[in-house]
Specification:
With 188 residues, this protein is an alpha/beta fold. The protein has helices at 21-34, 41-47, 53-64, 72-87, 94-103, 116-125, 129-132, 150-158, and strands at residues 7-11, 107-112, 136-138, 180-184. A four-stranded mixed beta sheet has the order 3-2-1-4, sandwiched between helices. The longest helix has 16 residues, at 72-87.
Amino acid sequence: MAEPQHTLIVFDCDGVLVDSEPLLQRVHTQLLTEIGWPIIVDEIHREHLGRSTADVIASVEQHIGRSVPVDFLQRRDAMRFELFAADLDAVPGVIEALNVLEGTGFSTCVASSGSHQAIRLTLRHVGLHGWFAGRIFSAQDVANGKPAPDLFMYAATSMGFNPRPFMGHINGRVLRALMWFAFPKSGH
């Protein structure tokens, strides 16, 4: 692996930096059941986890056989932000891990399927926005969101790193379901 000062760690947001997955699952199960898809958590993971909003909407519409209600996204966002205000926390251990990474010279950024607005609000709510200000990338920035690699490649390139030699992906204990990608600095 490249030296830390020449390595970028790209974090996902939901479920990696912030413990939002259980809250998002509650919102989705309620809303989708209301519009005719009594979805369960396993289906949410299989069908929607890590996908862009556009991909999720397309999946829901295909499953229910019609367009989602006009106010679907507004209701989803209102429910999500209400739950986040009451119950959202950073993933246990994430601040300690970020301190270690910063102290050893790693560069970091966030690349998430969420909108820029949602990522910023979420990170601000749990006190992590300052760690990543100016280094937040959204599926809104690329033509193909996750699971395509475009978002991670865009984030790496934007940060001055070479995205070609993909260095790793782990599910770590410290960050519970940590997803990171390490890219060497361009020219190293």
